[in-house]
Amino acid sequence: MSNPANKTTELLDGIKARNPRSIARAMSLAESRADAGSKGDRDFFAEIYRRAGSAHTIGLTGVPGSGKSTMVQALAKKFRALGRTVGIVAIDPSSPFSGGAILGDRVRMGDLSGDDGVFIRSMATRGALGGLTRGCMETVDILDAAGFDVILIETVGVGQDEVDIARAALSVLVVSAPGLGDDIQAIKAGVLEIADIHVVSKCDRKDSHKTVSELKGMLTMGLTGRNRPGQKHSWKPEVIPTSAQTGQGIEELVTMLDQHLKHLNTSGERATRQQEIAEMRVLKAAEDIARQRVAGAQETAKDNAFKGVNERTIDPYSAALELMKNS
Ligand SMILES: Nc1nc2c(ncn2[C@@H]2O[C@H](COP(=O)(O)OP(=O)(O)OP(=O)(O)O)[C@@H](O)[C@H]2O)c(=O)[nH]1
Ligand SMILES: [Mg+2]
User: Fold this and answer.
1) Which residue, among 227, 226, 172, has the nearest Cα to 197 in the 3D structure?
2) Residue 90's pLDDT band (boundaries 50, 70, 90)?
3) For the CA of 71, the nearest ligand
4) Is 202 exposed, middle or buried (0-12, 13-18, 19+ CB in 10 A)?
5) Least distant ligand from the CA of 201
6) What is the rounded CA–CA span in Å between residue 44 and residue 67?
7) 173 and 234 belong to one structural domain
8) What is the percentage of the chain residues whose pLDDT exceeds 90?
9) pTM of the prediction?
10) Domain of 154: which CATH number?
11) Is the pLDDT of residue 186 over 60?
12) Which of 59, 114, 158, 307 is the most exposed place for a label (fewest CB within 10 A)?
C-alpha cells in the first residue's frame, strides 16, 4: 500500500503543476470531507492554504438570471486573451447534485473547455449542510495554490453564506440586469453595497438604460461601496454597462478590475480586506466545528437536550454547551 504522506505530496505536486486531475481530486476532497476533517485532511488543506494568497479573486454576485455565468465566461475569455490563467468556481443554488451543475456549465462555458489555462468547477449548495463556505473557500484556495492568476467566483446574491463568499474576494462585482422587476431589486438591496464595481448586463436590450441610470442615481444618493471612514485613498464604485452578447463593456470591465487591484495594493485596503477575510474564515470554521460537535453527541443526549429545550426546562445555549462537552 502506498504511504499516505507520499500520496499527499503527489497530490500537492500535481496541483502545483496545474494538473486538472489533481485539482479535481483535491476539490472533491474539500467538498466531501466532514467539516473539520481528519488530521490528514487538515494537514493537506493547511498546506494548500499556505500556498494560496496570490491570485486576484473576483466575486460576482447578483439575483438569479442576472447574467453572472455569461459574464464569467466573457471575462474569462478576455483574461485568457491577455495571457492570464483563470479559475472559475460557480455555486449553483438550484441544482440538487453537482453532476447536473457541471453539465450545465460545461454546455454554457463550452468554448473555454479544452483550454488548460482555465479550470471550471461547479458546486451545489443543496445538500451542503453548513459546510458550503468552507468547501467553496477551499476550492478557491486550491485554484490559488495551483497558481491561477485570476479566480472568478459566481454566487447568487441571496442568502448570507452566498453573500459572504462573494465578499471574501478581493474585488466584488454586482451584476444587475434590466427588466427583472422591483421585488428582485429589493432582494438585492443588501447586496448592492458590497460592490466595488456595478455591472449592468444585457445592455443590448432597450430598457437597459433605466437600470444604468437607477444605479448611477443610487451612487450619487449615498451608496458608497466599501470605503471606510478616514481612508486616505477611497475607491468610487462605478457603473459599467455591458453586453456579453455584443462584447460591449467587457474590456472596460477588465481594465477597471486591474485598476481596483492596483488600488487595493497601493491604498492598504488589500491588507485590511485580507484581515477581514481571515477573521471571517476563522469564525466560519468555529461554527463548523461547533455544529459538528453537537451533531456528533450521543443520540440519547441529543434527544434529551432537544426535548428539554422544547419543554423549556433548559435553554438552547446551555443545551448546546452541554452537548459539546459530551461529544
Ligand atoms: N440579451 C442578452 N441576454 C443575456 C446576456 N447575458 C446573459 N443573457 C441571458 O440571460 C439569461 C441568464 O444568464 P446567466 O448567465 O445564466 O445568468 P446567471 O446570473 O448566471 O443565472 P443563475 O446562475 O441561474 O442565477 C440567459 O438566458 C442568458 O442567455 C446579454 O448580454 N444579453
Ligand atoms: Mg449562473
Assistant:
1) 172
2) very high
3) 1
4) buried
5) 1
6) 35
7) yes
8) 57
9) 0.89
10) 3.40.50.300
11) no
12) 114
Mean pLDDT confidence for 239-266: 96
Mean pLDDT calculated for residue range 287-304: 90
Nearest-CA residue for atom 13 of ligand 1: 67
Average pLDDT, the chain: 86
Q: Is the CB of 252 under 6 A from ligand 1?
A: no
**211 within ligand 1 shell (Cβ under 6 A):** no
Question: Measured from the CA of 156, which atom of ligand 1 is nearest?
Answer: 25
Write down the residue that cell numbers 465566461 correspond to: 73
Taking alpha carbons only, the member of 132, 121, 203 closest to residue 164 is: 132
Which residue's CA is minimally distant from atom 1 of ligand 1?
202
Closest ligand to Cα 173: 1
Q: Is the CB of 248 under 6 A from ligand 1?
A: no
Task: Report the separation in Å between the CA atom of 202 and the middle of ligand 1, taken as the mean of its atom positions.
Answer: 8
- The residue range of the domain holding 193 is 54-267
pLDDT of residue 115: 87
Residue 276 has pLDDT above 50, yes or no: yes
How many percent of the chain have pLDDT more than 70?
Answer: 84
184 and 308, same structural domain?
Answer: no
What are the cell numbers at 115?
483550454
Under 8 Å between Cβ of 293 and 305: no
Structure confidence at residue 93 as a pLDDT band (50, 70, 90): low
Total domains present in the chain: 2
Which pLDDT score, from 0 to 100, does residue 99 have? Answer: 38
| 198 within domain boundaries | yes
C-beta of 67 in contact with ligand 1 (< 6 A): yes
Please identify, by atom number, the ligand 1 atom nearest to the C-alpha of residue 65: 21
Atom of ligand 1 minimally distant from the CA of 64: 25
The verdict on residue 320 lying in a domain is yes
Ligand 1 binding pocket includes 245 (Cβ within 6 Å): yes
DSSP letters for 167-194: HTSSEEEEEE-TT--HHHHHHHHHHHTT
